[in-house]
Amino acid sequence: PSASSFAEFIHAFLKESKTVPSEKGEQKRRVLLEAIIEHYQSALRSENAGDDDSETNIMSLVDKDQLVDNERAMLLVLQTVVSLHDIYNVDSGSRSLTATTTKLIKRRQEMEEMAQSIVSLESLRDI
Predict the structure, then answer these.
(1) What mean pLDDT do residues 113-118 have?
(2) Helix/strand/coil for 94
(3) What distance in Å separates the CA atoms of residue 4 and residue 61, rounded to the nearest whole number?
(4) Tens digits of per-residue pLDDT, 10-33?
(5) Residues contacting residue 35 through CB under 8 Å, at least 6 positions apart
(6) Given a cut of 70, is residue 121 above it in pLDDT?
(7) Could you give the dihedral angle defined by the CA atoms of residues 120, 12, 89 and 100, in that order, rounded to the nearest 10 degrees?
(8) pLDDT tens digits, 78-95
(9) Using a CB cutoff of 8 Å and minimum separation of 24, what contacts does 45-49 make?
């Protein structure tokens, strides 16, 4: 798939995440958004798109150089990262660090780092 096709794929997931009825809760929205990030990371992990040695995952076929150069795709990934960052919010009044709270803090920090990485891309410099 091309980077623009990947952007359409991301857009479809984002659009779906916004239509989740409130009675199904935040969990389904989180799962959809996390799937986008997993596919994005899978595309970045691939060494050479289309190589016989690439992962069997379809995302390994996306050219990662074209992907990071695609402004629309990267803005959609950034939108996903920001949405997940908000979902991983930890109640500041919480005094105890449970395993869940620790995991949320870690995931939130990962989203911050990913956002910084995306914002620093040359394809987004003129925005």
Answers:
(1) 96
(2) coil
(3) 13
(4) 999 999 988 887 766 788 889 999
(5) 13
(6) yes
(7) -110
(8) 999 999 999 898 766 666
(9) none
Residues 6 or more apart in contact with residue 100 via CB below 8 angstroms: none
Query: 């798109």: which residue's tokens?
Result: 49
Integer Cα distance of 39 and 32 in angstroms? 11
Residue 62: both structure tokens together:
């996306």
Q: What is the mean pLDDT of the chain?
A: 85
Residue 116 has pLDDT above 90, yes or no: yes
Q: Which of 75, 16, 92 is nearest to 40 (CA)?
A: 75
**Distance between CA atoms of residues 33 and 18, nearest Å:** 10
Exposed, middle or buried: residue 59 (CB in 10 Å: 0-12, 13-18, 19+)? buried
